[in-house]
Amino acid sequence: MQKSRGSVAKRRRNARQKAMQALYQWDFDTEAHSISHIVDQFCDMQNMDKVDVEYFRELFFYAAKNLQTIDDLIEPHLDRPMERLDPVEKSVLRIACAELSSRLDTPYKVVVNEAVEVAKLFGAQEGHKFVNGIVDKLAANVRSVEYKKEVAGKTASVPQPVTDGAKDADAAKADDTDADESASG
User: Fold this and answer.
1) pLDDT band per the 50, 70, 90 thresholds, residue 164
2) Which of 24, 58, 126, 185 is geometrically suited to a Cys-Cys bond with 91, CB 3.0 to 4.6 A?
3) Helices 5-28 and 108-122 sit at what angle, rounded to 10 degrees?
4) Domains by residue range for the chain, with CATH
5) Distances in whole angstroms, Cα of residue 130 to Cα of each of 49, 77, 99, 137, 174
6) Three-class SS string for the chain?
7) pLDDT cut 70: percent of the chain above it
8) Which positions ≥6 away from 46 have C-beta within 8 Å?
9) Which of 84, 175, 183, 91 is nearest to 135 (CA)?
10) Nearest residue to 70 via CA among 48, 41, 93
11) CA-CA distance, 148 to 154, in Å (whole number)?
12) pLDDT for 32-84, tens place per residue?
């Protein structure tokens, strides 16, 4: 039986949440447990029925194995050192960066939105705003081609204001038309 699109989206959202939680857990005890141990433990102890387990594994493994690269991508956008970040926000940013880097099939806007939603659910009261700003900057960096196309598309579709010169030209045309109609009438 094929799952509906909504079901896939929900399973992926749950996968992101679980990946963030697993990374958060591993971050506190990187020496004591291997990456595989954390995943196995998480899959055994958590309800994974409504989770895209493969997506969860992919995000977690990518983030954990590429942690320094991910941190190097995040750090230039921070207003404080990485080690001073709230642990939940740090884990959300790392999973979002992992997804931006490894899952090019997922639109960057989805990654930004999902990171914000996870931060709202698990983070500090205003933490989602911080996450939103950083992940948006990451998207502009990591997915620059996609990001620029999106921004260019928005700019092209926004109606441009009529300048005073254009208004004056339109008014002059209207006056000329009125004058022609008066002369002929």
Assistant:
1) low
2) 24
3) 60
4) 5-142 (1.10.940.10)
5) 31, 11, 18, 11, 52
6) CCCCHHHHHHHHHHHHHHHHHHHHHHHHCCCCCCHHHHHHHHHHHCCCCCCCHHHHHHHHHHHHHCHHHHHHHHHHHCCCCHHHCCHHHHHHHHHHHHHHHHCCCCCHHHHHHHHHHHHHHHCCCCHHHHHHHHHHHHHHHHCHHHHHHHHHHHHHHCCCCCCHHHHHHHHHHHHHHHHHHHHHC
7) 78
8) 18, 21
9) 91
10) 93
11) 10
12) 678 888 888 888 999 999 999 999 999 999 999 999 999 999 999 999 999 99
- Tokens encoding 133: 């700003």
Say whether pLDDT at 176 is over 90: no
Q: Which two tokens stand for residue 138?
A: 């990451």
